[in-house]
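User: Run a structure prediction on this.
Assistant: Running it now.
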Amino acid sequence: MKEVDYAGELEETLERLKNYMHPDNFSLPMISDAAITVSTYGFDEDDKLVCTIPIPSVTGKIIWMNSLPQDKYVPGEDDKKGEWVVEEGWELQRKDEEGEHWVRPEHEKYGYVVPEKTCLIETREQYRARAKVESEKNISKILETAKAIREMYSACGDLVDQEVLVGVILRDVDTL
C-alpha cells in the first residue's frame, strides 16, 4: 500500500502557484464551487493544464435572511456593551410564495441620503428553491463560457502540435 503525503503535495502545489497566482488567491481553486479548465494534449501525452478559472459560488450573491437585518448599533449605558438592532422604517411590501418582501425607503440620516434597501425574508425551503434556480442559471452561463473559450481556440488556432481541451468542474453543488 502506497502512503501519500497530502500536506507535502499541497505545499508543493502552493509553491508552484507562487509563480502564477497572487498569494491572496491561492485558496480560490480549492474552495470554489466550479472551475473552467484549459488544457493541452497531444499524441501519446497526458493533459497539460494551461489555466484554471475558479468560480467561487454557483448560487451567485444570494443570501438567506430569516429576519430583517440588525444594522443599527445602540451603545450601552454606563460602560455596558451595546447591541445591534433593526433600524426603524422597514415596510412590508408584499407576501408571496417567495417570502416577505421588505423595503426601507430612501431617507436622510445625519445629513446624508441613505439609499433604499430591500430585504427578502424567506424560509429555508424558499431559499433552497431560489438557490436552485440561480445555480441552474449560473451553471448554464459557466457551460456557455467554456464553449466560447473552446470556440475561440478553434477559430484562432490551437497550439502548435497540440489540441486544446476546455473542461468544467462542478464540486459539491448541492442545490441541484
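Strands lie at 34-41, 48-55, 72-74, 83-85, 91-96, 99-104, 107-109, 112-114, 117-121, 163-170.
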